[in-house]
Amino acid sequence: MCVPLALLFVSLMAAPECSSLPTKTDSIRSNIHNIVNIAQITLVHIDKLNNKTPLQVEVSTPPMNGLTDISLYLGHLDDELQSPFTNRLSQIQADVSSLDSRVRSLALMLDCPIQDKPSVEPRDLLFPDSQHYVTLAKVQHYLENLPSNEEKLKVC
After folding, report:
1. What letter does residue 125 receive in the DSSP assignment?
2. Residue 16, C-beta contacts closer than 8 angstroms, at least 6 positions apart
3. Contact 135, 81 (CB under 8 A)
4. Domains parsed from the chain with CATH numbers
5. DSSP string covering 60-77, please?
6. pLDDT tens figures, 1-33
7. Residue 139: which residues within 8 A CB-CB, separation 6 or more?
8. How many other β-carbons are positioned within 10 Å of the β-carbon of residue 88?
9. Where is 96: in which H helix or E strand?
10. Angle, alpha carbons 70-50-46 (nearest 5°)
11. DSSP 8-state class, residue 85
12. What is the pTM of this model?
C-alpha cells in the first residue's frame, strides 16, 4: 500500500513542473533551435542534390542583421525556388518555405516588423536550370552562415 501511495505523491508533486506552459523565453529558445535544425536539414538536402549534379557557383548574399532581414531574404529565396520548370528543387523550396514561416513566427513573437510575403510572379527565364543552380547556391551560402549568426535570430 505504501508503494502506490508514494508513487501517487511523487507524480502529483512532479506534475506542476511537467505540465506548466512554456514561458516566452522557452518558446523563443525552442523556435531558434528549430530554425537552426531546419537550416541544417536543408543543407543536407542541398548536398544530396549537389552530389547528383556537382556545380560550383560563387554567390553573395545579404548580411543577417536580424529577423526582419532574414525573413525578407528567405521570402525572396522561396519565391526564386518556385518554378514550373523543375520539381527537383521542391524539397528545398518546402524547407525554405518552412524556415521562412518559423522565422516569421519568431519575429511576431518578438514584435518585430515583418513585411508581407511577396506575391509569386511568373518569370520568363532564358536559362532556368542555370538560374536554379544560382538560387541553390544562394540558399546554401545563406544557410551555412545561419548557425554562426544565431544571435541575430534574437533581434529584429
Report:
1. -
2. none
3. yes
4. 25-120+127-153 (1.20.1250.10)
5. ------SHHHHHHHHHHH
6. 555 555 555 555 555 555 567 787 888 888 889
7. 42, 46, 77, 81, 92, 96
8. 14
9. helix 90-109
10. 30
11. S
12. 0.73
